[in-house]
Design goal:
The chain has helices spanning about 10-30, 60-65, 70-90, 140-145, 150-165, and strands at about 35-45, 45-50, 55-60, 95, 105, 115, 120-125. With about 170 residues, it is α+β, with helices and mostly antiparallel strands.
């Protein structure tokens, strides 16, 4: 993250506090299917998040290369996805990913899925974020209105499962 150097001391401090808070959220997310935050530091007007390296391909890349998955593989993925979302949504306060798509699920060693890209994750202290983010084919209607709930991630998981079985984005 590049810190705003010309926006004033107050803005810069607020941005740095937000990044530090988000890094603490990631650091607290200890789950075998979620990318791990290893370190956070600030240097030369930039904030850095050091994440676990995951060797593998995203589910999107795998479908594009090999075609749709079979039903048994998708069932295995669905079990892992529900474990991830159950963990995130049971946090206090809840964590909603808001971009749960085949692009953000990587297949690691042993067919273990890893959820990546928490840039748009939202710590839910209220039930409305007023921000629309994500890939359109995977966004539920309430997220288009700027309202995000844990059910938004569940909708996106359903759209992801559709993609894995059909080999194309849902309409």
């Amino acid at each position: 993250f590049i810190l705003p150097s010309y926006a004033g001391v107050k803005v810069r401090k607020r941005v740095l506090e937000n990044i530090q808070r988000e890094s603490q959220i990631l650091k607290d997310l200890q789950h075998p299917n979620i990318v791990k935050l290893l370190d956070f530091f600030v240097e030369d007007e930039r904030a850095y998040l050091v994440l676990e390296q995951i060797t593998g391909r995203t589910l999107k890349q795998l479908v594009e290369e090999k075609g749709p998955f079979n039903e048994l593989d998708v069932l295995s993925f669905a079990m892992q996805m529900t474990s991830i979302l159950s963990f995130l949504h049971s946090r206090k306060p809840q964590v909603v990913h808001r971009d749960f798509t085949p692009d953000n699920l990587m297949m690691g060693h042993g067919d273990i899925l890893k959820l990546i890209d928490f840039n748009v994750a939202q710590h839910l202290e209220s039930m409305s974020t007023h921000t629309v983010v994500g890939k359109h084919a995977y966004i539920p209607p309430e997220q288009f209105r700027g309202e995000t709930t844990p059910q938004s991630d569940i909708y996106a998981m359903g759209a992801t499962l559709f993609f894995l079985l059909a080999g194309e984005d849902p309409e």
